[in-house]
What we know:
By secondary structure, the chain is mainly α. The protein has one domain. Helices cover 76% and strands 0% of the residues. The chain has helices at 2-23, 27-32, 40-50.
Amino acid sequence: MFAALVRFIQEWKRYSRSVRELSRLDDRELADIGLNRSEIERAAWGAAQVR
Length: 51
């Protein structure tokens, strides 16, 4: 159980960092990587769980 909590905290940190970085991009830069602003949180959570 402790390991699961640690893993979740690590995922949350990766998620937060990704959301912050993607939010700094303008709409054109997001479109270049195939995202729009409404997809940032979904993409960030998916990326956080992959590692």
